[in-house]
Amino acid sequence: MADEMTKQQLWDFNKVKYAGNKDLKSGAEFHYYNPDEVIGGKKMRDWLRFSVAYWHTFDQRLVDPFGDGTAIRPYDKYSDPMDQALAKVDYAFEFYDKLGVDFLAFHDRDLAPEGDTLRETNKNLDKVVDKIVEYQKTTGMKVLWNTSNLFTNPRFVAGGATSPYADIFAYAAAQLKHSIEIGKRVGSENYVFWGGREGYESLWNTDMKREQEHIAKFFHMAKDYANEIGMDAQMLLEPKPKEPMTHQYDFDAATTIAFMKEYGLDKDFKLNLEGNHANLAGHTYQHEIRVARDAGLLGSLDANQGDKLIGWDIDEYPSNLYETTAAMYEVIENGGIGPRGGLNFDSKPRRSSFEANDLFYGHIVGMDSFAAGLRVAMKMKEDGVLEDLVKNRYSSFDSGIGAEIENGKADFKSLEKYSLDKTQKELRDATSSDHLEQVKDTINHYIVNTLGK
Ligand code: XUL
Ligand code: CO
């Protein structure tokens, strides 16, 4: 306690504690996230493995296409970019401590300003990484993933690994090489590739096949180099259908899996899936997680939500309990997010929530929403609600003609023989109502009753 009191306080916010169902209005406590509570045989912190995203939390100025940033941050007082970058590390680590998260995630360019050459840029970056490594030693903070920003600088106007300009491909590779080295230094659990501008604006000027071959080569080179230097992070691709490009190559989980298989990447790469990216692709988050887990390729999750009324990639902190319940149900079915995955808050405050404390409130609602989702989904799982429902729905495949179809004993001829004289009534009787409305009512009851306790 005394130690806590004497420590320098950079953020004007108390350490966030678990309050259970007390003090419902403060917004400064967790009501559902109790990190060391064991649920379904694992601590909540180990199910959820929360991570704070450096870019949205410490760098984001809350700009939108129509206006400048509104964010007020305590380190704005540092005018020299390098001084500010180094100071931000102190702010970041106090933030993690106050929030009680175990992981962080960052792009190379989040941490330090660029120089004129890659050599100078790497030097700036290494200084900040040195400081992060020092903090890791004293705090035990882990890096969920790191990544390389191959989309902000104008040189990446037409992509990095899919740029039609060979010098840009080469630069992207060189930049990524250093990023992989940093991943090794900070002990990253995963390494993420989100296809920033890897896609196209128009097919009239694009050789799509050539670009895809280039990026597949790029991924192989990255993995080869990681192996060469003993950087053992799980490599992940992060699908997104659009923004910034009209069409992104890693459109959704299914498209990305097909790409991985086509180019022999599915043994070494898995997926990092994001809530609002799923929505932009016309899917639910649950759908994307299901596609990945069915393929054995669920790697990690970016936590955020979109808003159907606006339709952009708005990276809102998750607060929709129905969505977090569905996502956590898939995670439980998967036995966990993935051996090395976690929930990274790829989320930022709304432009009108511009005070520094809003960064805490945002993470609190996000963490509590996933913790609540975990509690509800676990209760549903323990009661076997959906398991029985799904099992019964497919039970006609457990024996008779259904079993013959599944075990390869049936063919079109035998199925014709089986079906030819079946009457309309017999076929109608072979189906039954799935009572979907009743199922949804049950899910609502589980949400209300599990959390109301
Ligand atoms: C962009 C996005 C990125 C990646 C990392 O929509 O999700 O923040 O997660 O580059
Ligand atoms: Co993301």
Structural notes for this entry:
It is a single chain. The strands form three sheets. The protein has an eight-stranded parallel β-barrel with strand order 3-4-5-6-8-10-11-12, surrounded by four helices. It has a two-stranded antiparallel ribbon with strand order 1-2. It is built from 18 helices and twelve strands. A hairpin with a 2-residue loop joins strand 1 and strand 2. The mean pLDDT is 96. It has helices spanning 2-6, 44-48, 54-59, 81-99, 108-111, 118-139, 166-186, 208-229, 253-262, 275-280, 285-294, 321-333, 357-382, 385-393, 400-406, 412-419, 424-429, 436-451; strands spanning 38-39, 42-43, 50-53, 103-107, 142-147, 190-194, 199-200, 234-238, 247-248, 269-274, 298-302, 343-345. It is globular. The longest helix has 26 residues, at 357-382. Helix content is 47%, strand content 10%. The chain has 453 residues and is of the alpha/beta class. Helix 6 runs parallel beside helix 7 (166-186), helix 11 runs parallel beside helix 12 (321-333) and helix 13 crosses helix 18 (436-451). The structure holds D-xylulose (XUL) and cobalt (II) ion. The site of cobalt (II) ion (CO) has 5 residues, from loops.
List keywords for this structure.
alpha/beta; 8-stranded parallel β-barrel; two-stranded antiparallel sheet; binds cobalt (II) ion
Question: What secondary-structure arrangement, pairings included, does this model have?
Answer:
Layout (H helix, E strand, L loop, with lengths): L1 H5 L31 E2 L2 E2 H5 L1 E4 H6 L21 H19 L3 E5 H4 L6 H22 L2 E6 L18 H21 L3 E5 L4 E2 L7 H22 L4 E5 L8 E2 L4 H10 L6 E6 H6 L4 H10 L3 E5 L18 H13 L9 E3 L11 H26 L2 H9 L6 H7 L5 H8 L4 H6 L6 H16 L2
Parallel strand pairs: 3-4, 3-12, 4-5, 5-6, 6-8, 8-10, 10-11, 11-12
Antiparallel strand pairs: 1-2, 7-9
Bound molecules: D-xylulose (XUL) and cobalt (II) ion.
Cobalt (II) ion binds next to loops.
